[in-house]
Amino acid sequence: MTATSDADAPEEDEPEKGPLRRCIATREVQPKERMIRFVLGPGREVVPDLTGKLPGRGMWLSARSDVLETALSRGAFNRAARGQVTLPSDLRARIEDGLRGRVRDLLGLARRAGQAVSGWQAAREWLQAGRAGLLVQAADGSPAERARFGGRDLPAVLPLSAAELGGVFGRDHAVHVVVAPGRLADAIRAEAERLAGFAGTSPGDA
Fold first, then answer.
1. Would the pLDDT of 80 be above 50?
2. Helix 183-199 to helix 65-73 angle, to the nearest 10 degrees?
3. pTM of the model
4. Please, what is the Cα angle at 180 between 177 and 183, to 5 degrees?
């Protein structure tokens, strides 16, 4: 008899309650903020549910590109769904694009709520006044410039390009954005870290 590993064991119906979820590929249990939820569409197509709110039984995956590849190669979605599913050829790109959109939307909410500013001068003023909870910097900005700007104990993430950050703040580009402490800063950091896991980049300079 051949032994069955935990990763290949049949899925169990686990209630989607509480802060933890089990990855269908690795079987590791992690906070749901570090994972991606998937559901089945009407044609049994695997759909990434980045907000975790779509109806249906969720299939959870650690927010890393290598774990996604493991899930695809081992048929983890078929096993979790108890049957054949349709996997979009651009699934990884859909996830990355969706997470970038999530970061942009949350930054936009923070800007409109007066909880975020961009630009060297304004961001430095917030930093020096102790109003900073999170530093968001352009992924394609100068590493030396990012290092000169950042606070020693302030978490930093690099989720978007300078053009993308600028678009959120009505500018051609932005390299430095400071977000006030609070739920929006926490949510932006979580989405940036999920994006980094799928994009294969460092989440930031925390």
1. yes
2. 50
3. 0.87
4. 115
